[in-house]
Protein 1
Amino acid sequence: MMKLRIGTFNLFQFAEPPYAWYTKKEKFNTKQWLEKTTWIKSQIVKMDCDIIGFQEVFSKDALERLVNDLGFKYFETSDTAKLSNNNPLKYVTTTVAIASKFPITNIQKVRIHTPSLKNHSYEGHFSFSRLPIKASILLPNTQKILVYVAHLKSNRLNAFEYVFHKEDSLIHKKDLIFKTLDDKHSVALKQRLCEASSLFFDMRKVKNKPFILLCDVNDKEFSLTIDALTNHMYHDDKRKNSALLYDVANQYKKIQHNPHPEAKKPTRKPTSYFQGRGNVLDYIFISNHFDKDHDDKIAQVTDFIVLDTHLQVNRNGSLLTSDHAQVISELTFR
């Protein structure tokens, strides 16, 4: 019975010295870089994954060397982080990466879905804020899977945000959000919804191959961005509320032996904090090939872990560690 462990890891400004990111002053010295990369290595060992998706990668060669040392023979990035025209030692864009212990047999582009741009009244030239990865991977049991890695557009400071809850309907969320978009109050959210929609339609075209998305959504649990990524009804209100993707956190419940009769229902661990408030920004989504309720599933979720000890020490995160928790899931094949 084969087990596959997958994870997502936002590295928080992975820029090898002497390179800076965004401003000339933001860079690591040699001692800080050693401390950061030592911590990253220890986290990857704790994750114990076969496949990891990374976000906030500036120095891809340094990351490739790091993961190679830990047994990940296969490594790809979606793009090369761009350097400033005025300063050859300053990065101005970031990218995503994937590391795998199993062969990556193909990398494809995620196509922009033009009708979704029209549906969101997007004006001007559109491109992903960070190009996603779409990687074909051959597992030891000869099963081929597609693994997407994405890092959606982040909110701008002071941009208005709605906070939704499980009981909020899709119609209610769309009514509120689309009014905000029409009033041009959140350009970043419009970009993020277009990115999520393009990913949705790219994944919807996948035939007869299981797929997984490792993603920093940059939006909260129950957000409309997650509906755009996962829910057919978001894109076609004639469709029933049916899922293209499933959140692994909802596929696995840890058995509690002898729970206290007055114990509260466990809440989901935040993966990031902003102004002291915890949010779930980092997700692993799976296709119905891994859904616990699907009759023809080939595997199912048998573990779900959020590594957040460093955030319990410092909720804002440290540049020497990360400002995100690492999210891991185990899939056990039938």
Protein 2
Amino acid sequence: MMKFAIETLLGNEGLRGFWFPTHSPERRRMDGARKIVCGVAVLLACGLVAAAQTQAPGAHQAKVAQAATSAQHAPLPRFRFENFTTANGLPDNHVYAVLVDGERIWAGTENGLAVYENHAWKTYTTKDGLAHRAVLTLALDKHTGDVWAGTMGGLSRISGGRIDTYTQLNSGLSNDVVYGVSVVGEEVWVATAAGGCRLNLRSGQWTLYNERNTPMNEIWVYGVSATATKVYYAVWGSGVLEYDQQTGRWDKYDDPDGETEMVLFKDQGLIHEIVTSVSFVDNILWAATYFGGSRYDGRYWHNFLTKDSGLPSNFINVIKGVDANRCWFGTDKGLAYYDGANWAVYRPSLTTGKPEMTVRDAQGKTTPVAVTTAPAHNYVLGIDFAGDDVWVATAKGLSHGIRQKQ
């Protein structure tokens, strides 16, 4: 059986704690990441980076500065984190995805789909019709209330307690390994290990998207964000693909310098080709990669790296935009929040394991904030919101961040 698990996840140990099948796309991207990291070390030793990242100030920089000024006095949110594990009802501590559905909270775990309602957990498994025990992604159909679960063995639809499953054998699903799903109107957009696809709920027709009919060079698609106007795919090694709902045309956003080892041109395009997650909100594209994050407003790019932002790590698993200026980042070294100018990081300390919160202001000053709780683990895989609260899926439990009054 194919195994998609995180056997030992320690915040300070980076990729060492992963185990993936030899021929899986995960192993491929991990091996690629290791090679790239080695390349970065060599290039930095040669001193090539400093001169290459100089950019003349312009209108975009002025806009960024203006946004920073307006946001710099806004207090960053503080949370009291409540953590859920197998000890209090979760079927497994490895939580890949979380979905807020009104008063219900859905959690995709390594060992089933769990739903939290009325202070109790219920778990759906393959015995109930779930496609596979490992649930990697979740999406809500806001019109019908149906929940869509992408798994390691197909796509499942949970509707009124009934589960219908789509696989390569019984449908037009492009691959049974489903990394992302997004529902808009009567269409379900899916990201799989062999390209993207779309299901029209009215007609039942499937449309496949791969290297034959889109600009993608690689077919490992790790995330999708669909709206009524645009659809974005996060593709390993092929950047971000954009589909225009009105014209039916595709566009592609690449790393403009073509260098996977370092950033040659700051804020001139997508930060890196290995894209893990996308979020499109308020006409702003937020993109996560294993080498930093990017924001795109349709004209200008702004990139985020640990060296010039409050990111705790450039290795970003998931990104979730709140609006045009605010965004959450789930990394391998903690949960980060960006308000358009300032940053906050929430995590167990990398050295002591004790709860910590740090704030980085627009001028780059970092300040610790005394807290008594933190997310269950530093390795963050999923994020969703419930009003002012935040829910966080981690490698060792599910966390509910309850916003505190300040």
Protein 3
Amino acid sequence: MAKTFDVGIESLVSDGTRAPAEHQPVGRQGASVGLLPLPLRAARGAAVREEALGRDASIGDAAGAAGKSFFLETFGCQMNDHDSEKVAGVLQGRGYRAVDSPAQADLVLYNTCSIREKAAQKVFARLGDWKTLADGKIIGVLGCLAQQEGEEIFERAPWVSLVCGSASYRKLPELIAQLESGGRRVTGLDLDTDETFETEITRRDNLLRAYITIIEGCDYACSYCVVPHTRGPERSRASDAVLAEARRLADAGYSEIQLLGQTVNSYRDPSPRGWKFVDLLRAVAAVPGIRRVRFTTSHPNDFHRSIVEAIDEVPELCDHVHLPVQSGSTRVLREMLRTYTREEYLEKIEWIRAARRPISITSDVIVGFPGETEEDFAETLSLLDVARYDAIFSFKYSPRPNTSAMHLPDAIPEEEKSRRLAVLNERQRAIQIAANEKLVGQSYEVLVDGCHPARTQWGGRTSCNRLINFTSPRVNLLGEYVQVKITRAGPNSFAGEHVT
């Protein structure tokens, strides 16, 4: 059963096709939103589209009659991915249709990230392309960069008409209506609002996995991080609303859900029920039809032993934890305002490693933070040896506006940051190769989410988030859970064969 569903009223699938790629995943893994992958959509989409639209099928008719089109490109994290699904749903509800090229669109939107300078530069490069080509199009900037820069975007790119942060997406129809009525520039820059959770339509761009945002914003004040400024203070979503969305997703045929939040495990139910994160985690896993529940991103300060116990006890909870450490040096962690020491972090790693289920662990690491000495960097390298992560996401420190670290002395030269990043990645690569080789011969359940037509291979992820590409004598495996035996290991993925 294909999925074309979501919040409030049922969502719309798009009507374009996506060009085949070497590995074509099911749903949105690339940069632009609007197109569902051909294999499942062609095989299963039509009947479910009609069923899912139900009484709201007239929206699809309105989209065709209106003749308006939009292109939406997304930068950044999974929360931005999900925000783009919300934006696309809002636009389709207003009568816009998605297209796969900005040149074809009446409305061109960039949903942006500002966590690092490079991401911001990419967006302004995209905007620069329209300096002489806007030609009556509405050009808009959404997301974190929009919230961070505000109306200054108009100064840097006068051809931009719309600047809207993530908390204001429900206002998009109103903002676009102002532009369509002759308005030149509009903004939506609210921050502290619960309305960020709910939109009338969310168009799901992945047919197999669905996101649910359970908490927005952040109350921590990490000295390098711009999120509290761009996403605002923590606001948790009522547990009843989360569970209702999970049940609707299950009814639509989804079996895997990922709970999202900048600090997802800081969740505190604002309703009288008063649940903590682990209570919500168990409740979502108990929804009939849900087979896998993931969550990201956790803050170490709010990662409690009860989360590990829940993963041990509830098979539907995926055996994977992403727990960002950022640095292996307590001194640097203190400068980062991370609220924990190296020893306190490693204690939590010990909880995870002691679980009855083998839980995979991934992390984020920053190198080149101001004042980071060779001794500090060596402590980070040694932490990799102790933690034995299954994977890391590593970054060079990037000064960001409105952060206290921006004004710290002893900046590390860019060349030295690059050197440290290369050393870090090489150390982690060796750890992953050694760990992955030990998994050869083992079998895992894989949710098949893509195919490699040229190599006649399928691809998918295990509960512990390992990517396996495998051969099979069967056809039409997309969306199925299958057993796969690992036959070969690389540093970042595996090859295998379908156990039939």
